[in-house]
Amino acid sequence: MSSVKLEIAEFIVELHSQYSINLEQGFIPFAIDSSEKSADVLLDCHLFDQLHEPETKTEVFDSADNNCRFFKIYKTADSLYFEIFDQENNSQIQQIGILSADFRHWDVYCRADGDGGITPLRYPLAPIIMQYLALQHDAIMIHSSCVTDGVTGRLFSGFSGVGKSTMAGIWNKQGYTVVNDDRLLVRLQNGKIVAYNTPMYYADRPKKALLNEIFLISHAPQNRKQQISGSAAVSKVMAFCIQNNFEPVFIEHNIDVISKICSSVKVFTLGFVPDNDIVDFIINN
Amino acid sequence: MDISTFIALKKNYVARSVANELIVVPLTNNVAQMNTLYTLNETGKFVWENVQPDSTIDNLAQKMTEEFDVNQATALGDIQKFLDSIQTKLTK
Q1: Domains of chain B: which residue ranges?
Q2: Residue intervals in chain A for CATH 3.90.228.20
Q3: Could you read off the pLDDT of A45-104 as tens digits, one per residue?
């Protein structure tokens, strides 16, 4: 029996398998040895041939866009059943994940690796696990970048291609730490709002930042920012969250958490020119 | 949009109150509608929260006159204006 414990965004994710568990490089910095911390979510990992298909399942969600199929979700009598597609060969199922009704336990089924071990957390399953963990806590996952100087954390969110990574790169050149430039998990922790990175396809150490400001960014001919609040802020932030809105309780959870975040953090719309001036503009305006 | 159409469409959405407004989010089985959400002002919030399966526009307007300082004609006008304004959004 092999076991692996990961600490991601201060959540403990514990994996068990009778096979050797392989981790992609992005997960390795998140692995911990501690036996003291109890798991927030448990994953029992198996080979495909150990899967017992449920008698009935009903499709409730299809995460696909024009270019790629990511996963499908089905409801069974007592669980959610995830078909996760291989991102390089999109017709092939890469993992099956079965999530218990209390969202605290996954059974994950996948193929054996060449070495006889298994890699159960292959993308995109790990972000899905974090997303459903967030639903059980005061937490959200959001498409965004985040930078910090150790005191002030700033999160930049928006549609694909609006410059989240570009913005993070500009701040990084001026000495700021990039927590992540693509996907953040944001938690309410003892009255503070904290943004965390999560494992990516590349190795990066676990990072976090106290969050003070959220910017909903777009390209513009000149820099301009406007503070927004109330339902306008909540709805705009929610638009960029990673969410599977097939259950009313999921939507209610996200609105409630984002409302709390937006009551503690300043939210701005920001039109920006992607050059170094944006840093001074944000700090001084 | 008439009130019965609104009642039928409303089932496909989840609403949550934030401050004095209501955020309305579609229930969806895919990622396409994730960014399609709306905020409703006071009139919209009132209609959304008070409409019942058997509601008519007249009894909603009557209820509105009991809660706000408006007469029946103004309430009817405000409700119809809301229904017309939200038609495009809910039928996208």
Answers
A1: 3-90
A2: 139-284
A3: 999 999 999 999 999 999 998 789 999 999 999 999 999 999 999 889 999 999 999 999
- What residue ranges of chain B have pLDDT lower than 70? 32-35, 92
Assign A20 to helix, strand or coil: coil
B6–chain A nearest CA distance, Å:
19
Q: Does domain A139-284 have CATH number 3.90.228.20?
A: yes
Q: Which of the 8 DSSP states describes residue A246? A: T
| pTM (2 d.p.) | 0.94
pLDDT, one tens digit per residue, over A162-173 is 999 999 999 999
Reduced to 3 states (helix: H, G, I; strand: E, B; else coil), residue A13 is: strand
Cβ distance A251 to B18 less than 8 Å, yes or no, reads: no
Name beta bridge partners: A156: A145, A215
Mutant choice from A70, A245, A247 vs B, greatest count of B C-beta within 10 A: A245
Strand partners for A95: A84, A110
Give the ipTM: 0.87
Kindly state the tokens that stand for A241: 């969250």
Read off φ and ψ for residue A19, nearest 5 degrees: -105, 160
Q: Identify the sign of the CA torsion A139, A5, A100, A49.
A: positive
